[in-house]
Amino acid sequence: MSDEPDAMRFRAAMSRFPTGVVLLTQGGPNTLEAMTANSFASVSLQPPLILISVRSDSRMRARMDACTTFAIQILHEGQRHLAACFARHQRPGGAQAADVLEAVPTPLGNVIVASAIAVLECMLFARHAGGDHVIYIGRVACIHMSPDERLPLTFHRGEFTVPLSRLTIKSPHEEMRVNGISKAASALFEVGSARSASPDYRLP
Ligand SMILES: Cc1cc2nc3c(=O)[nH]c(=O)nc-3n(C[C@H](O)[C@H](O)[C@H](O)COP(=O)(O)O)c2cc1C
To answer: Is 35's C-beta closer than 6 angstroms to any atom of ligand 1?
Structure first.
């Protein structure tokens, strides 16, 4: 018998990991395809690379396979309705989607949701098989950032959520002090932070 966890259990475990929520968009004003996603992550600083994983049998997959450019919009707390709308199979497409999103064209050939917290316009860099998803790596070509200080929209335990506050303990070092974490761990952090002061942050 296989020890592999079933899909429900895997999904339940992953749902405990809070993520941001993005809208993946591809196409121009009349051909726009937009999809809600949370499998977005940064990959590399130099060159600036991101990844997003798209279900193999989704409409977006065909688009991504044929595209040279796409955009990622990081959504804010007030854009939950857009996230919900573009997570549906019967979501708007083409000019109707551009209308709903109040999307604006860019010189790179994308249409973007300028009201998002940040928008990354990407050139398709690589594509990898990932089980029932395809992982697309994009090279960030242009960044737009809204001056809006709104909180990000997040997804946790199957629900859209918003971080309670922006307050954090000032540094991991401070946290160790507050939580009484051992001197040994604290010393380890000092070594780590000294290393991370260098431009190459990788540990040996
Ligand atoms: C919060 C959230 C995150 C999602 N993340 C992804 C994702 O990363 N990749 C993906 O393919 N679908 C993701 N989905 C599902 C899609 O938004 C959408 O429902 C589905 O893939 C569309 O398939 P279709 O093109 O066949 O309609 C997510 C849905 C929600 C609500």
So the answer is: yes
